[in-house]
């Protein structure tokens, strides 16, 4: 997906992905009691932590990618 201006979508995406993903991830994960208040007393607690961490990682990366993609499309429509 190359644009006439010379800015490829891949460069645009990866330049902005972590700038959006990291704050969104930390804001979303900090109030989660399964991650912050987990006592790690049994094997189930480790599994619960891993599941919720991966779940939030997957969801917030999808949301970040979606928002960046929409912004790219809006940027291209203005030109």
In brief:
The protein is mainly α.
Which SSEs are present, and which pair or pack?
Elements: H1 9-29, H2 33-36, H3 43-78
Helix pairs in contact: 1-3
Description:
The protein is mainly alpha-helical. It is 77% helix and 0% strand. The chain has three helices and no strands. The longest helix has 36 residues. The chain is elongated. It starts with 8 loop residues before the first helix and ends with a helix. The relative contact order is 0.16. The model has no long low-confidence stretch (mean pLDDT 90).
Radius of gyration: 17 Å
Low-confidence stretches: none
Helix/sheet category: mainly alpha
Helix count, per DSSP? 3
Q: How much of the polypeptide forms β-strand, as a percent range? A: under 5%
User: What is the 3D shape?
Assistant: elongated
Overall mean pLDDT: 90
Give the termini distance in whole angstroms. Answer: 15 Å
Helix amount: over 70%
For the largest beta-sheet, the strand count, sense and barrel status come to: none
How do the SSEs run, as a string of H and E? Answer: HHH
Strand tally is 0
Descriptive labels:
mainly alpha; 3 helices
């Amino acid at each position: 997906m190359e644009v006439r201006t010379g800015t490829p979508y891949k460069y645009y995406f990866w330049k902005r992905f972590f700038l959006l993903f990291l704050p969104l991830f930390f804001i979303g994960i900090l109030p989660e009691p399964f991650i912050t208040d987990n006592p790690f007393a049994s094997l189930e607690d480790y599994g619960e932590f891993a599941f919720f961490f991966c779940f939030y990682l997957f969801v917030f990366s999808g949301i970040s990618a979606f928002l960046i993609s929409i912004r790219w499309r809006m940027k291209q429509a203005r030109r």
